[in-house]
Amino acid sequence: MSTVADKLAKKSTRKTGGKQVRLRLVYVDFWSAVKLSFLGAVALAIVTMVSFFLIYLVLQATGILVDADEFISNITDGSVSVAALLGLPQVMAFAAVISILNLIVFTVLGAVVAGIYNLAVKVTGGLLVGFMSN
């Protein structure tokens, strides 16, 4: 009696006569590249905000911020406070500024790369990609 696993094993060892297709990528749509790079930049911004928050929590839980505050206070005779400079609101505001700058830079970079690729295609003929249907 044949099981389902035996039938699948027979199917996987059988040679398939798939047709191979070679396509050439000759154009990248500018607005599609901008939208995709913006979406990637939004994901990176979320990761940046969460990572800054988690790093701050780890530094606070391990006591590194307190040790740094004491060390800087000893050096400056108490005129500078690390705790006042590196509070959670300041850290998250800095992370937001970094995220917004990354959002702008990555979106513009995606548009520039699409434009450069479209110009390079005129010289090189495009990117040749092979596909095979099963």
Largest sheet: 2 strands, antiparallel
Number of helices: 5
Helicity, in percent?
Answer: over 70%
Q: How far from one another are the termini?
A: 28 Å
Number of DSSP strand runs: 2
Average the pLDDT over all residues and give the rounded result.
Answer: 87
Contiguous runs where pLDDT drops below 50 for at least 5 residues: none
General shape: elongated
SSE order? HEHHHHE
Structural class of the helix and strand makeup? Answer: mainly alpha
Cross-sheet strand order for the largest sheet: 1-2
Over the alpha carbons, how many angstroms does the gyration radius reach?
27 Å
Q: What share of residues are in beta strands? A: 5-15%
Describe the structure.
This protein is mainly α and 134 residues long. The chain contains five helices and two strands, in the order H-E-H-H-H-H-E. Strands 1-2 form a two-stranded antiparallel ribbon. Helix 2 runs antiparallel to helix 5 (88-124). The longest helix is centred in the last third of the chain and has 37 residues, at 88-124. The relative contact order is 0.21. The mean pLDDT is 87.
